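Appendix C reproduces, verbatim, an entry submitted by the partner laboratory led by Prof. M.T., so that reviewers can inspect both the input and the predicted structure.
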Amino acid sequence: MQFVAFERSKQGTGASRRLRITGRTPGIVFGGDAEPTNIELDHNALWHALKKEAFHASILDMEFNGKTEKVLLRDVQYHPFKQLVLHADFQRVNAKTRLHKKVPLHFIGADESPAVKIDNCVINHVMTEIEVECLAMQLPENIEVDLSEVVKGQTIHARELKMPKNIKRVTHGRTNLTVVTVVPPKVEVVAAPVEVAPVDDKKGKKGKK
């Protein structure tokens, strides 16, 4: 993905506030051989870009001062209740940059699994992303989790995921992290109707005499 950044000359809380009023978002680019650079971005363009998964988990082409740099989105600050991006941080990367980054999980094939087709189970996604370590240029946009063969009661852990070549899973020592659980459908227990003994009309009439 590609986006455009502009040089930001003024710094400070007041300058950033005035910048946001004009429809721009302050940001910074750091890393690589260059010094950290203060930038500004068109807020509406950034807002729509942030809605795309790839903008968060892939290498981006940033146009800046007539040149294109490879960067990675590192942090975004949002306003607590307004639809407003307050600040964005980007990291410069190159072929030698090694990084840790959370990558989204894409679940496929669940509807074709025995658990769903035969047993009507519910597939519960416990994790929706996983942290990986790799060279920046090898960073995958997502990692697919094939659920086409899962069965009732099965649990898939992070250590079972098939990782792309040269991509290392990072679990910080927690090898039993649960990614997916297959939950059997709830069985509704219907109470049996209570039988009411019929009233003997003849006995009732005798009692009245």
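The chain has a mean pLDDT of 90. Additional entries are available on request from the coordinating office.
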